[in-house]
Design goal:
Number of helices: 8
Order of helices and strands: HHHEEEEEHEEHHHH
Number of strands: 7
Strand order of the largest sheet: 3-4-5
Strand content: 5-15%
Length: 269
């Protein structure tokens, strides 16, 4: 918006300069000439606004976990295409699983519930609750060949593939990778920074979740169960919402919620 304001602010001086230049050349300024200059300005504003919209849309796609077109290798002349990429992972029953080596020492391929490069993102409680119910169906990960090497497109950029993550309520420690420091951090994050508060919210929504297919968990269902979960948290741990906490908790990350929940649970004993 600041760039667009700058473009608009300079409009009078730009048109004046153009008119002065035209007058110096021919001594006559026509309406058509002014219209052409205004059209040039309009295109400049459209470009700035378009760039701003693209950036904003990209931010929303990332925050809401919505897929955007992914880059594929192009045809023989090297031109890159934009298209969706085939889903990665093998689907067993309801959920996808991903095969990769447990560690550098253990070269055996093992199936896990998350791709090798997955990590729990920074999230607010509402986003975490949605992932708890429906997972990350639009998760993307780096594509690899059978030897585990990263795939690149014609421009040398890494190719991304869809790697759907099951609802986090169906995720257990045994389904998360093991064998290295990164996997230990992943398990710890799930155990300490994600799962506890979501399990409390699940308590009051147990029947609704059990009796609703994931395909039917629309935005209304997600919001209603979230509201019930918050009300349940407030009844069990009112200190999280009392005083200054009432304003702070609205901006807590999922990790902060679990930290405060742990402290409140200790005081309630």
């Amino acid at each position: 918006m600041e760039k667009m304001d700058t473009v608009n602010d300079t409009l009078p001086s730009r048109i004046k300069d153009a008119i002065d230049e035209k007058a110096a050349e021919s001594g006559q300024v026509t309406a058509q000439f002014v219209i052409e200059k205004l059209e040039e300005h309009s295109k400049a504003v459209s470009t700035v606004l378009g760039d701003q919209i693209k950036r904003s849309v990209a931010d929303v796609l990332r925050d809401l976990n919505i897929p955007k077109p992914l880059t594929l290798a192009g045809d023989g002349d090297g031109d890159a295409q934009t298209n969706e990429v085939e889903t990665n992972g093998v689907r067993y029953g309801r959920f996808h699983e991903f095969c990769y080596r447990e560690s550098a020492r253990n070269g055996r391929l093992i199936s896990w519930a998350v791709p090798e490069d997955f990590d729990f993102p920074a999230a607010k409680l509402q986003s975490a609750w949605f992932a708890y119910l429906v997972g990350y169906p639009n998760n993307r990960s780096l594509a690899r060949n059978e030897d585990g090497e990263l795939l690149t497109d014609a421009r040398g950029e890494h190719v991304m593939v869809r790697s759907p993550i099951r609802p986090l309520r169906h995720l257990t420690y045994d389904l998360l990778p093991r064998g290295n420091l990164k996997s230990k951090r992943l398990k710890k994050k799930f155990r300490d920074d994600w799962r506890p508060v979501l399990k409390v919210m699940h308590e009051v929504n147990r029947a609704a979740i059990a009796n609703t297919q994931e395909a039917l968990m629309d935005n209304m269902f997600l919001q209603e169960t979230f509201n019930l979960g918050i009300a349940h948290l407030k009844s069990k741990y009112p200190q999280l919402f009392d005083g200054t906490g009432a304003t702070r908790c609205n901006i807590w990350s999922i990790g902060s919620w679990n930290k405060h929940l742990n402290l409140a649970a200790r005081r309630n004993k």
